[in-house]
From TrEMBL:
It comes from the Bacteria. Keywords: Dipeptidase, Hydrolase, Manganese, Metal-binding, Metalloprotease, Protease. Mn(2+) 1 binds at D254, H336, E380, E417. It comes from Vreelandella songnenensis. It catalyses: Xaa-L-Pro dipeptide + H2O = an L-alpha-amino acid + L-proline. This is Xaa-Pro dipeptidase.
Length: 432
């Protein structure tokens, strides 16, 4: 790892310490305990589900798989990390990396699960409700105070140089996986083999991905959160949609690509190219002061132009938007905040913590804020052929080209997604 990244991480921790000191004083707390969380066992089994550490815990230490551990923050004192590292011959014991950030914390390796002692008026955040009842009572702290939580979430909205470097590297690693997935598709692989090619090239095991990868061939590309991997390659290859990420030091990449297969109609390949152009146009529009809701609405306006230009809709672009045609072809939002969590915190709040809900016409939108420098957002326009969404249009006597849509139904859909940093003067696309 580069010395620059290590120095950025030390500066990141110092920044967090200053901000946490100020926020604890502002909200009247003398100490804060952050619980890392722990994996939950499958019902009636002794096998645990996949796990990732609590976001505010990772914000400090960048360790995505630490369980039963605590971080204690007290103004004017060094942060204390109580790291659970039991003596164990069944599993590899948790070990600290040989990295400079370790020196910025007071670290205690705990062979048993402990409960930190907290001074003065204390708060505790994390999945405390999953702890034994006696542990919860021993904490003697206010649990997840709402005003403090809103402030801590807001702190994560603007990324430090260290966080941006981690997001950039996560994107680089994820793109290697996407290139391998495309090659596997060209080689006529099935969904599972494409997934395995992605994991190998991005250098990660399946339990470590930041979200379950979506690998959808043909009509499966039109299932927005398609959750399976078929073992057998289809007889015809119309399309592939890959929505797959990578985590680096706790920070997530979230990238989507779509491809036309050898058996796809020419119209579908042209639509894939058009969606790439739409994504690029929207990325170029990102800058401080841009209203993300307005950008989402602009996506629908340009999507309407694509529908008309490619003969899917024989009316005007304005009619396609007004009559809800574009929403039937793209039911999700333009994007969301990205960071330690794929759908990062505070996307539906104003900077002061007050609610900023999605508009009634776009209920799936996950980001309603005005963009400012340091935010990282996804830009992911889509165009899908989903029967249950398109069928209601048939009853409205709209000028939809149903013959062409029926031809494109086996292709499922298209989504193109990049991860973009808002800079002081515009934007920086983190996706290679």
């Amino acid at each position: 790892m580069s010395a620059t990244l290590f120095n950025q991480q030390l500066e990141h921790i110092a920044h967090l310490q200053r901000e946490y000191d100020a926020l604890l004083a502002q909200h009247g707390f003398d100490s804060l305990a952050i619980y890392s969380g722990h994996a939950a066992m499958h019902f009636a089994d002794d096998h645990a589900a996949s796990f990732q550490s609590y976001g505010h815990f990772m914000h400090w230490v960048g360790l995505a798989d630490v369980q039963h551990s605590w971080l204690v923050i007290q103004p004017g004192k060094r942060p204390q990390l109580h790291l659970y590292a039991p003596d164990d011959f069944w599993h590899l014991t948790t070990q600290l990396p040989d990295e400079p950030w370790v020196s910025a914390l007071d670290i205690k390796l705990c062979t048993r699960r402990t409960t930190p002692s907290l001074d003065g008026k204390a708060a505790v955040i994390g999945d405390v409700a999953s702890l034994p009842q006696d542990t919860q009572q021993a904490l003697n702290a206010e649990r997840a105070p709402d005003a403090l939580m809103r402030s801590l979430d807001e702190l994560r909205v603007t990324k430090t140089p260290y966080e941006i470097a981690c997001l950039r590297e996560a994107n680089r690693l994820a793109m290697a996986g996407h290139q391998a997935a495309q090659a596997a598709f060209i080689g006529a692989s099935g969904e599972l083999d494409i997934q395995l090619a992605y994991l190998a090239a991005s250098r990660q095991r399946e339990s470590l991905v930041p979200y379950q990868n979506i690998i959808g061939l043909n009509e499966h590309a039109g299932v927005l959160h398609y959750q399976h991997y078929e073992l057998t390659p289809p007889k015809q290859r119309f399309s592939l949609l890959v929505d797959a990420g990578r985590r680096f030091r706790g920070y997530c990449a979230d990238i989507t690509r779509a491809y036309a297969g050898a058996d796809a109609p020419e119209a579908f390949a042209e639509l894939v190219t058009a969606l790439h152009g739409l994504k690029d146009e929207l990325v170029y529009s990102i800058a401080p002061g841009v209203d993300f809701v307005a950008l989402h609405e602009r996506m629908h306006e340009h999507l309407a132009e694509i529908l008309v230009a490619h003969d899917l809709f024989k009316g005007t672009p304005e009619q396609a938007v007004t009559d809800g045609v574009t929403r039937a072809f793209c039911p999700h939002g333009l994007g969301h905040l990205l960071g330690i969590q794929v759908h990062d915190v505070a996307g539906l709040r104003h900077p002061d913590g007050s609610p900023a809900p999605a508009p009634q016409d776009h209920p799936a939108l996950r980001l309603t804020r005005t963009l400012r420098p340091g935010m990282v957002v996804t830009i992911e326009p889509g165009l899908y052929f989903i029967p249950m969404l398109l069928e209601p249009l048939r009853d409205k006597a709209l000028p939809v080209n149903w013959a062409l849509i029926d031809e494109l139904l086996p292709c499922g859909g298209i989504r193109i997604e990049d991860n973009v940093l808002v800079t002081e003067s515009g934007h920086d696309n983190l996706t290679p």
